Amino acid sequence: MDLDDFSWHQQIEKKIALRLGLSDLTVGPQIIRDEKGWRDNEIRIKYIWIATVSRSFVGNGGVFSLKFEETSFREKRNPARLVQGVFITGQQAQIPHIYFEEEHKNFTDNIKDLKSWDLFEPNNGIALDGVSYRFHVLALNSDVTITLNNPQSEPWKKWEDNIWDLGKRLSANSKTQELIGLFE
């Protein structure tokens, strides 16, 4: 990955954070400030993952998941919750469309639940076009980024199926044609 690509992904992640009302996509405690810059709340993020998707001749976007821990700050109670979303990226790291949902009970994160990864042979073929992914995982004491092109091994196909299932469900719920088109 070159520096321009890294910078582009950082900009995308920052814009997702801002759309979610966060200052940054980092795990651990985050201070929420009001318009005057005063401490308004404090939350704690347990883990984050973002899978960006680049489809030849279709477009770019991705899906993400953030798991918030239950916390309290002064009189405020912040329940545990799972936020999952879908987004489209445009020129200059813009996010013209984003949609997300929150679960407060019965958290389902199929990507987090995957336990098997084939890091050395995700695809033994040639990847001239198709689908490319960048998978960024943040957890306590862990920051992992993996890039893939047209994964074919069984563990990565399972991962890819879960990415597409989540992307299709969220984009359909958004009723936004551009989001739906990325995951058709």
Structure overview:
With 184 residues, this protein is α+β, with helices and mostly antiparallel strands. It has one domain (3-119, 128-182). Helix content is 26%, strand content 39%. It has helices at residues 3-19, 110-113, 154-174, 177-182; strands spanning 28-33, 39-55, 59-68, 71-73, 76-78, 81-89, 97-103, 131-139, 142-149. Strands 1, 2, 3, 6, 7, 8 and 9 form a seven-stranded antiparallel β-sheet that branches. The relative contact order is 0.17. The model has no long low-confidence stretch (mean pLDDT 86).
In short:
The protein has four helices and nine strands. With 184 residues, the protein is α+β, with helices and mostly antiparallel strands.
Task: Tell me the layout of helices and strands.
Elements: H1 3-19, E1 28-33, E2 39-55, E3 59-68, E4 71-73, E5 76-78, E6 81-89, E7 97-103, H2 110-113, E8 131-139, E9 142-149, H3 154-174, H4 177-182
Antiparallel strand pairs: 1-2, 2-3, 2-8, 3-6, 4-5, 6-7, 8-9
Which characteristics define this entry?
single chain, 184 residues, alpha+beta, seven-stranded antiparallel β-sheet, two-stranded antiparallel sheet, globular
Structural class: alpha+beta
Mass-distribution shape: globular
For the terminal residues, how far apart are their CA atoms?
27 Å
Strand content: 35-45%
Q: Level of helix content?
A: 25-40%
Q: Count of DSSP helices?
A: 4
Listing every helix as H and every strand as E from the N terminus to the C terminus, the arrangement reads: HEEEEEEEHEEHH
Radius of gyration: 17 Å
Biggest beta-sheet profile: 7 strands, antiparallel
Mean pLDDT: 86
- What is the total number of structural domains? 1
Number of strands: 9
- Low-confidence segments, given as residue ranges, are none
